[in-house]
From TrEMBL:
Protein origin, superkingdom: Bacteria
Protein name from the UniProt record: Glycoside hydrolase family 13 protein
UniProt xrefs under SUPFAM superfamilies: (Trans)glycosidases (SSF51445), E set domains (SSF81296), Glycosyl hydrolase domain (SSF51011)
Keyword NAD among record annotations: no
Length: 632
């Protein structure tokens, strides 16, 4: 933030004048751009005693349309129009206000003028398209790699600690650590990184379950226009995005619109009471999706609690019906794309946001950056709920424009097939059934699919550390429809359940810290089994990276029979056959019922083993196995 240029026109100043004098402390967005398709810009101006000021902006192509005031005299919201003719450059925003000061026993009027420089820049960012051709890798920055130990903690921040021995505190991972491992992602076959939030979380520790915990996860924003210093700040993020793009890797940012951290700078001096969803007594959201989706039998009371209740007491719920809140959040999203050059968004707690607001936010991003990948988190159990919050073919009054859901329905189907207390006899029907309902989505290929994430039990533990199940699930993830993502460390068999807390599934990546005894980034630092897992993922991801059929081809599935699930991905260039088996013994698969897809193919290459299959009429299928066969 640049220092305010303060000019006070008067002959004699006394201390009383300074107590009343207006000042400017912040302007958000911190800058803007010429050439945006939407010429409108609303500036949040925050200072002291600025209500009632005359505002002047004199710059070619920039028009001040309206000065909006709110309850709090320390805010102005300025509506500007940036014409097509406007050029990049800097100009002053000038405020003039008459204040009363005490001179002797008299009050006299004095004119105070203050000015702050604002900058318009030329647009230079072109986000890359993220879609089903990509393989996304999810990183919790604080727990991945520490590239710069000097930024682990700061004495002037609300949470001053960093201690790797404590699972609930910050551990020092940062953006420089991620940048240093870009070659690792390239080797693994990753094309896109999704980072848990990087925005400043200057939050105090909170007592959760009897333990003091840091906001290391990043979901309690305190200043949208600053990347957290403990991650390296704005410069480190710019460097990561730039270097990742050089390596052919895209960046997805985690967005939080539903709430902010209790320590957010705006909450210390709110523009108006209705900046937040307020209740007479504290009201928590119900965490249920049904009150929103149930348009036939639902009620307004449950709907209001679900939408306007707070996520937790230390994450105040933003009121999206406040027009200034809406503009503030939407403009920040646009600013982020243009300032940092990110390529996509994952929206946290999507279903708890005002859905009309989310449609407007998505539309604003799409207007400036057509076809930008936006995927929403809705931790739901059934397909109707999941489809309701995304682009769907349902006959319902509200139509969401969200391009992609985090596919929790398919995630639960994977668990039902392979995880927890399932047994081989349950079969592949949960997977088959979930995909059989895809007609409900407008574009199921954009569904972001996964086997675990930062809020779920780790996949290798879910499947009972059974390596055969591990391979079957990841084969399905990387060959079925959708846009797959992998949680950091799954490729090297990181494990644990969320017991007693989420910290158990958010452990540090071994090798990300200089004093780590093991370095799982390197083959020599991994065990034989971990290398087998890593190379398994690498083989599949590399094949997928070059397979048009697996990226965008049509999915044709066949009813699971005799403990085997067979499906195909195909386009004009390629046909890929996938065979998953849960049988305890070897089986021979007669392929006659797949003739409509196999057609004249006489041989194939099994990608995982490299073997050539010279006869496709009958295929030997090993126990508890996965095969990916490129037909010739």
């Amino acid at each position: 933030m640049k220092k305010t240029i303060l000019s006070i026109t008067l002959c004699c100043l006394v201390s009383a004048l300074f107590a009343q004098s207006p000042s400017i402390q912040r302007i958000n967005p911190t800058n803007w751009w010429v050439g945006m398709k939407n010429p409108a810009l609303q500036l949040l101006v925050y200072g002291k005693n600025i209500k009632g000021s005359e505002v002047k902006i004199s710059y070619p192509g920039v028009s001040l349309e309206k000065v909006n005031t709110v309850e709090n005299p320390n805010y102005l919201f300025l509506d500007l129009t940036i014409s097509k003719e406007a050029q990049a450059g800097k100009f002053p925003i000038e405020l003039t206000k008459t204040v009363q000061v005490k001179k002797g026993k008299r009050l006299i009027d004095q004119v105070v003028k203050i000015s702050q420089e604002y900058e318009l820049r030329n647009r230079d960012k072109k986000p890359q398209v993220v879609n089903s051709k990509d393989f996304i890798y999810l990183i919790l920055p604080d727990r991945f790699a520490n590239g710069d130990p000097s930024n682990d903690k700061f004495a002037d921040m609300a949470d001053k600690e960093s201690d790797r021995k404590n699972p609930f505190l910050r551990h020092g991972g940062d953006l420089q650590g991620i940048t240093q491992h870009l070659d690792y992602f390239n080797d693994l076959g990753v094309t896109t990184l999704w980072l848990n939030p990087v925005v400043e979380n200057d939050q105090p520790q909170t007592n959760e379950g009897g333990s003091m915990r840091s906001a290391y996860h990043g979901y309690g924003f305190t200043d949208q226009y600053n990347v957290d210093r403990r991650l390296g700040g704005n410069e480190a993020y710019l460097k990561l995005v730039t270097e990742a793009h050089k390596k052919g890797i895209k960046i997805i940012q985690d967005a939080v619109y539903n709430h902010v951290g209790i320590n957010h700078w705006i909450l210390k001096d709110m523009p108006s009471k209705d900046w937040l969803n307020q209740w007479d007594t504290y009201t928590n959201t119900s965490y249920r999706d049904e009150p929103v989706v149930d348009i036939v039998h639902g009620n307004q009371s449950d709907f209001k609690v679900q939408q306007n209740g707070w996520f937790v007491p230390f994450l105040p719920d933003l009121n999206h019906k406040n027009i200034f809140v809406e503009k503030y959040l939407i403009q920040h999203a646009l600013w982020t794309v243009e300032y940092f050059g990110i390529d996509g968004w994952r929206v946290d707690t999507y279903q708890y946001n005002d859905l009309a607001f989310m449609n407007r936010c998505n539309a604003a991003l799409d207007e400036e950056y057509p076809n930008m990948f936006i995927t929403g988190e809705n931790s739901v159990q059934n397909i109707i709920s999941q489809a309701y919050f995304t682009k769907n073919n349902l006959n319902v009054p509200f139509k969401s424009n969200l391009p992609s859901p985090n596919d929790f329905v398919l995630y639960h189907a994977i668990n039902a097939t392979l995880g927890y207390n399932s047994n081989w006899g349950n079969g592949f029907n949960p997977l088959y059934s979930a995909l059989a309902s895809d007609a409900i989505y407008q574009n199921p290929d954009l569904n972001m699919t996964f086997v675990d994430n930062h809020d779920q039990d780790r996949y290798y533990s879910v499947v009972g550390e059974d390596f055969n199940k591990y391979k079957i699930g990841l084969t399905f993830l990387l060959t079925t429809r959708g846009t797959p993502h992998l949680y950091y460390g799954t490729e090297v068999l990181m494990k644990n359940f969320k017991n007693p807390s989420d910290a158990e599934v958010r452990q540090d990546f071994p090798g990300g810290w200089a004093d780590d005894k093991e370095n799982k980034f390197l083959a020599q630092g991994r065990t034989e089994k971990e290398n087998e897992a890593y190379n398994f993922v690498k083989t599949l991801a590399t094949f997928r990276k070059n397979s048009s059929a697996l990226q965008t081809g049509k999915l044709t599935q066949f009813l699971p029979i005799d403990g085997m699930y067979v499906y195909f991905r195909q386009d004009a260039q390629q046909t890929v056959m996938v065979i998953l088996s849960q049988n305890k013994e070897e089986k021979t698969l007669n392929t006659a019922r797949f003739a409509e897809i196999i057609k004249g193919a006489s041989s194939g290459k099994e990608i995982l083993s490299g073997k050539i299959l010279s006869d496709l009429k009958e295929i030997k299928v090993s126990p508890y196995s996965a095969q990916v066969i490129e037909l010739k």
